[in-house]
Amino acid sequence: xxxxxxxxxxxxxxxxxxxxxxxxxxxxxxxxxxxxxxxxxxxxxxxxxxxxxxxxxxxxxxxxxxxxxxxxxxxxxxxxxxxxxxxxxxxxxxxxxxxxxxxxxxxxxxxxxxxxxxxxxxxxxxxxxxxxxxxxxxxxxxxxxxxxxxxxxxxxxxxxxxxxxxxxxxxxxxxxxxxxxxxxxx
Length: 186
Prior knowledge:
With 186 residues, the protein is α+β, with helices and mostly antiparallel strands. It contains six helices and four strands. It has helices spanning 3-13, 18-31, 39-57, 90-106, 110-119, 163-176; strands at residues 65-71, 76-82, 140-143, 154-159. It has a four-stranded antiparallel β-sheet with strand order 2-1-4-3. Helix 2 (18-31) packs antiparallel against helix 5 (110-119) and helix 3 (39-57) packs across helix 6. The chain is globular, with a radius of gyration of 16 Å. Pfam families: HbpS-like.
């Protein structure tokens, strides 16, 4: 079974086995490296996340998300709200901010950090990752550039769905714009 199918099975069956989830998340992070990242790249990816959300969830009033793509130098390259109140509220931005801080501090996806902590029986608050400053839940994904292994340059954020779905929406959207990962010189 492919990793995408395995992860979809996890989503469908609500599997919480950390030994199953962690290698899949780590592989997402290992494989997803952008050849470069511009405002145009962020707009295209953010728009794809929005479109894929609408494709999956329609304009259902009970679901909504916030999307942001930020660089760690302070630039917010993309920002959107999809859905209506009460499905989307100001608290979603607080969660997105916490996920961004988690990715910035750990250089890992916020889902991976949360699963690693849970697997070790640790609470985020006891690991110097207190909420709301940090959010160790799915929906924050690092923007890595190929050949730059020191740290990610930014973060892709989704908040509003269950954490596995937030994470998977990002990964599936990146797959739809996978040409952004390709080296343009080849």
